[in-house]
Amino acid sequence: MIGMYILIIFELTHRTVAAMFAAFVGLGVLSYLHERPSFETVVSWIDYETVGLLFGMMIMVGILTTTGVFEWAAVKAYKLSKGNLWHLTLILSIMTAVVSAFLDNVTTILLVGPVTLKLCKVLDVDPKIMILSEVIFSNVGGTATVIGDPPNIILANHEDIAPHISFLTFSLHVAPAIVLSTIALLAYLYFRYASTIHRDPSLHIKHEIDLWSRSLARLREDPDNPEEAQVFLYLENYIFSLEQQLRKKEMEGLATIEELEERYTIKDKGLLLKSVLVLLLVVIMFFMHSLLKIELTLAWIAVIGSILLILASGITNVEEVLEKVEFGTLMFFAALFVLMRILEELGLIEWIGDQLSAVIASVPEGNTRLFVAILLLMWVSGIASAFIDNIPYTTTLAPVVVQLANDPHLGLPLRPLIWALSLGTCLGGNGTVIGASANVVAVGLAEQQGFHISFMDFFKLGMPVVFITLSVSCVYMSIFHVLIHW
């Protein structure tokens, strides 16, 4: 796992290759220390629900993209913000947080992310801050409800925890911490990044020149190889033409809102109507699934929705549909799921739980023990969830929390421990690009549009957010669940 992080941090290879390599090495270690798992067993470790959900949503969003609605919505959003890019970032981020409280984070980012990326492309704005802000608010907002984030769903469905919490009870105790964390987060982002968001008329041409220049640097002009020499010459000429466009663009300046409205209109209103109806049906089914326990899983709902939209749109070329799917992201998730299960089989997550229990038991009973238990659960879970997937972590820690609460010698109430575990695992996912599924999806969407967001780009913004939100949540939990015993 450390090797995977080294490969990703220093960008020695693509994150998908790094995750596959780490999973392969992990299987070797597991086979050496324990019994070698069969191929069928390894394949069963992949969470096909997540992969299927992503696959279906990518197809639907991809088809919707062809209508031009994202560019149109981007211009309207910019007009609504009256040209203030910080206000625009604020509107999109808060909207993402609210939606994410009622839809899973991955779906939220797949719906909001393309709009943001098109917006940045239309307005000549670097999308890094906007897209990262949205995914962070998605993770924060999803923490507020039982159905907003996978760890919360796991906790709510645990047989020993379910009788003690409800949708309303959970939100009443956790949502205030999220509201306070959001206020602190907005203040941090404003003072740290508001002044860095600006329009640059030549941004995208500069970006393209950089991409092709790096490709040219990897080539070598070889007179003995005519094909390579021809490619080298073509790239040189193409970069020269881009540089000419750059000079022209810098002289022209930025387009006005009126010019943008004329340039970006809906291309296919019929397909847009069909796409919106199918997506609306899928979103309603997602919401009803959480409340009414519909037998269809989220993955099946997304896949069936994508099939319906393909049939309704009249697309006959399968390759055209599959081009909408970011297969690199899907493969990364598959490898990551295998790696996380290997860590679980090796006992790493269970060991973390045992150490937590031992430390908490060593503290004198009373408010001090409860304070230490909440503090440890939040911070250990937060840091761990930044580097390992929070789903297996929550699955392993849930019975540990129940065991701590049921131990008569410890005298710890169950509910505050549940709130602490939820806040730690969900908010900690903002720390790194692989801390939460939505993070990986957001970075994948950006790469699809030609914008590279590195591990360190995410880490520099995400890790301070983890410390800020966890600190605020710790203060809230200490006052309302240690001193006041709400």
What does this protein look like?
The protein is mainly alpha-helical and 486 residues long. It has a domain at 203-253. Helix content is 76%, strand content 0%. It has 23 helices and no strands. The relative contact order is 0.15. It is a multi-pass membrane protein. It is found in: Membrane. It comes from Arcella intermedia.
Provide a concise account of the structure shown.
InterPro entries: Cit_transptr-like_dom, Diverse_Ion_Transporter. By secondary structure, this protein is mostly helical. The protein is built from 23 helices and no strands.
The end-to-end span amounts to 40 Å
Q: Strand share of the residues?
A: under 5%
Tell me the number of helical segments per DSSP (H or I, 4 or more residues long). Answer: 23
Mean pLDDT: 83
Supply Rg. Answer: 24 Å
Sequence stretches where pLDDT stays below 50 over 5 or more residues: none
